[in-house]
Structures are given as C-alpha cells and as structure tokens.
Input
Amino acid sequence: MKNESLAIGSASSISARMDRLPTTPYLWILVFLISLGGFFEIYDLVFTGYIAPGMAKSGLFATTTETFFGFKGIGAFIAVTFAGLFVGTFGLGFLSDRYGRRSVFTVSLIWYSIGSAIMALQTTSEGVLLWRFITGIGVGIEIVTIDVYITELVPHHMRGRAMAFNQAVMFCAAPVAAILSFWLVPLSPLGFDGWRWVVMLGSAGAVVVWFIRRAVPESPRWLAYKGRIADAERVLEKIESKVAAQYGGTLPPSLPPIAEKKREMVAFSAIWKAPYRSRIIMLLVFNFFQAFAFYGFNNWVPTLLIGQGITVTKSLLYAFVIATASPIGPLLSMMIADKLERKWLIVYAAFAVIVFGMLFSQSRDVGPLIVLGILISLSGSALSVAYHAYQTELFPTGVRARAAGLVYSFSRIGASMSGFIIAFFLRDFGVVGVFAAISAAMLICMAVIGIFGSKTNGRRLEEISE
Output
C-alpha cells in the first residue's frame, strides 16, 4: 500500500510538471507529428463519399437499393466502414491503456496501410466490403489513441488549441482526397480504376508517415500511471530540456500535484459510477447523433449536389471546393478553443449546422450551394475540434482510452446507419428531407451537451476526472 501511494504521488507530480510547461514550438511539433497519423484517418473517411461515383461506375456498387439494408449499394460500403470503426473503438480502444499510446498508435497506422492496399485490389463487392471492414478496425483504434495521446502530452492551458491544430492537420486530408478523386475517379490510369488509385495513395502515404512519427515519445502520464516512474521521469526530462531551450529561461515552478483515484478504483467498472456514469450516457447519445449528422452530409456531398441539379463531374469539383474549408474551421477554432467553454462551442457549432443545412436544402444555384456547403463544413469542423478534446478530458488516465473508445464507438454506429438513412430520405424526401433529419440529430446534440455537459476549459485533467 505504501509503495502504491508513492507511485500515485509520483504520477501526480509528473502530471503537475507537464501542466506547468509553457507553449513552445517543440510541443506543437509533437502535436503535428501525431496529427499526421490522423491525416490518413480523415483521408480514409472522407474519400468514402468521393470515390462512390467511381465504384458505382465500375459496377461494384449501386447508388441506391430497393431494400433498406441493401448490401450491393454505396450505403453498404459506408456501413461496413463504420462497423469496422465501431469494433476498433468499442472492442479494442482499451489497447493503448494497456500497451501504451505510442505502440498502439504506430501499429494501428500500419494496420490501416496494409488493409487499404488489399482492399484496393479486390474485384468483387464482397471482397471490398470485407477488407473495408478490416481496415476500419485499425482506423478505429487509431482515432481513440490520437485523441488521448494529444490530451496527455500537452499542458492544460493549450489542450483546446492543440486539439484544434490536430484537427486542422487532419482535415487537410479532406481537400486532398477531394482533388485526387476529382482527377482520378473519372479515369482509369494504367487500366486501374481511378477510385483504386485514390485508396492506394492513402495507403502508401501512411507508410511514409510511420517513419516520421517514431520521433514522438510515450506519454509520461501513462508511464507514471503504470508505475514506470523512472521511464516517465526520463521521457519528461527530455521534453523539459527541449521546451526550456526554446523558452529561453528557467521553466516555471511545478504546479501543486493533484492525485487521481487509487489504481484499483479506476477499473473499467468505475466509469459506470458517479461522476462518470452520467458523462458516459451523455456522450453515448451525443456521439450517435453527431456522427449521423456529420457524415450524413460529408459522405454524401457529391450525391447531394447531384440531387440539387449539378452534374456528376461538376459535383466532384464543387465538393473539392467545399472540402477546402475543412482545415480552415479548426484553424479558426484555435483562436477561441481555450477561451470559449468547450460545451458551448459544441452547442453553437451544432446550431450553425442546422441553419446552414436547411438553407442548403432550399438552394439551387451553384454559388449559394458552394458557400453554404463551406459554412456547413466550417461548422462541422468546429464541432469536431470541441468534442474530440471534450470526451478525452472527462475521464481519468487509467481508463481514458477505453472510456473515450466506448463513447466514440456510438459515433461509428450513427455513421454506419447514416448511409442507409440518408439514402432512404434522399430517395423518398429529397435533399430537404435529408437536412430535416440532420437538423433533428443536431438538436439532440445541443440538448444533451448544453443541459448535462460539464465545464472543462482551463482545468487540469486530474481536477476534471474527480
């Protein structure tokens, strides 16, 4: 018991030393390197909608199906993507709690690269769906690990900006995926379907980034929590020396330590007790509906534009223009991420999606459609920045990845269902019906976070977890 108390004390001291670090370029570089892995996560999710016309053209899938759960349609491709993500986040999100943020982070990226490459070579719809599912599992593990990794590596006073910067880097993948799809999907370079080239390019790029990310250290907070105090001290000292060199002086004094609960009290079952139970339920509901709304728009942008009278080729071009706003939203969010309370940023962003979405559904001219599409994209990006930071802040170190994986897994269910539901509303109610469904989902998000959400801005992780 005495040794355990010493370990807990040391862990809280490690965390206190990290929270006193000033913001320097080195910390931003760490966030950037981690975010490069997230780039391919977003690339993988975003190209789902952009390669859909090419997959339909090749005869592998149809745009819509006669039955609701039609597994020969694009909806099935979207569904298995998020089914794999669900397995990764819900079933395997705990891996980084057990084996470390850095190790799982690296393995999951290699998993994605191999799975994507094999999927691109499939010649049957069944083969594509199988490997899309397998790839989604690796991406799901990576999503959870990235959020937790960044939350633990930066001091509390820059958590919001760090997550916003992370999202900005990641969302740069949206215009990249869009322009590559615009160039390649209508063609068959070297006799290879254009959509397959889009998938393969993402797979190859992820391998390159794996070598770059080897420079990122393990989370000292996680090492300390696991009782590896000497390792945590060694990693933190390296971080402190690099920060001090850039800071140009003596680092500020360590903040007062705040101890988390004893290790045996942070078992997975503990998150179903106060205060975590209400947070879990709140985030389960929120994640389901925000994902349905977010991917209900982003995965269907080209198809929705076609529904508004735009041709297939031009819809891909306009979708690219809309996608260019994706990284701008997080960059704009950096200005307010640590100033405006995160729960209210989520609420305001969701409301903006409702307003701009309904205006989009009423428009027929190209100019307003593009402007409103950009505004929806900006609002969705701001929402993503806020909740990715929010849902990792609310839980203690020992189960942070598992708890975040659990709640985030419901976003995978919502996103998986979005393919079938959006196809249904588009077929029977048109674009107006699609945005009516998206608006209803966002209203639920506003209610659960606005009414039940806790405040987290400027608070240390140990303080929030208690």
Q: What stands out?
A: DSSP finds 20 helices and no strands in the chain. The chain has one domain: 2-250+271-465.
